[in-house]
């Protein structure tokens, strides 16, 4: 995961309501992005060395799915 990938995740997160907290944790070959809402906490696993451009798209897709499952709502028009 490079700086641009991290920025993309944080930019996406700004468009969601209901997120109370978030953090990145590093360990081994992967990094975790942990999100907390009123419904609880979950994480997505992020590769430290993503293979190609699809990895960034998949990270955003996984983040959106996780946020929806946690009851966060996306701002209209985003």
Comma- or semicolon-separated keywords:
three-stranded antiparallel β-sheet; 37% strand; 78 residues; 36% helix
First-last Cα distance: 24 Å
The major sheet is characterized as: 3 strands, antiparallel
Q: How many strand segments?
A: 5
Main sheet: which strands, in order across? 2-3-4
Q: What structural class do helix, strand and pairing data support? A: alpha+beta
| Gyration radius from CA atoms, angstroms | 12 Å
* Estimated share of beta-strand residues: 35-45%
Order of helices and strands: HEEEEHE
Helix content: 25-40%
Low-confidence stretches: none
Q: Kindly state the mean pLDDT as a whole number?
A: 90
* Gross morphology: globular
Total helices: the number is: 2
Can you give a write-up of this model?
The structure is a single chain. The protein has 78 residues and is of the alpha+beta class. It has 2 helices and 5 strands, in the order αββββαβ. The chain has helices spanning 3-13, 53-69, and strands spanning 16-17, 19-27, 30-37, 40-47, 73-74. It has a 3-stranded antiparallel β-sheet, with helices on one face. It has a two-stranded antiparallel ribbon with strand order 1-5. The longest helix has 17 residues, at 53-69. The model has no long low-confidence stretch (mean pLDDT 90).
